Amino acid sequence: ARPAADTPVVPLASNYDSAADAAVKKVAEAADKHRADATQIIAAAHAPQRGTNAGPGGANAGGASAGGGKASVPAVTGSSRGAAALKAAMTQIGKPYVWGAAGPSAYDCSGLVMWAYKQIGVSLPHSSSAQSTMGTAVSKDQLQPGDLVFFYSPVSHVGIYAGNGMVLNASTSGQPVKMSKLSSMPFHNARRL
Predict the structure, then answer these.
(1) Is 109 one of the annotated active-site residues of the chain?
(2) Choosing from 15, 46, 109, 189, which is the catalytic residue?
(3) The domain spanning residue 116 has which CATH number?
């Protein structure tokens, strides 16, 4: 696998949707260059749909459904930097959680956020606590796709708000990168970059 430092960075453009599309294209190209990793990634991405780890806490607990019910993955709209980062992050759904990992084959929570924003030219620290102080504060009722949402007190988890009350996150060992309900974790604060 390529080291995270070698992950392609898409320069921030005035049209953030174009930057997001370019980021998604770069990610796809990187996957094509690393067939061995791609095979593992595809297997991990399909595992939640097949239900191979069904039951409480299994891979089926997240993915396209969250909290046990069928919850559709929100369509990403908007032209903000956050929406562009969210589009890049959504290409990583299904990849495994590994503490301290920042992609491209595995992630922890702050590593996923760091990687997604790096794709649009924004540098972030690899720490949910440090990320929770960056950018501008956003109230829970004003969240927009791409905003960073932080959980627990003190802050120990971060995800990217995806709209419709859903958060894209790398939550814990044994769980892939997935969508979760915002309400399923104790909200601490939110920031917009």
Answers:
(1) yes
(2) 109
(3) 3.90.1720.10
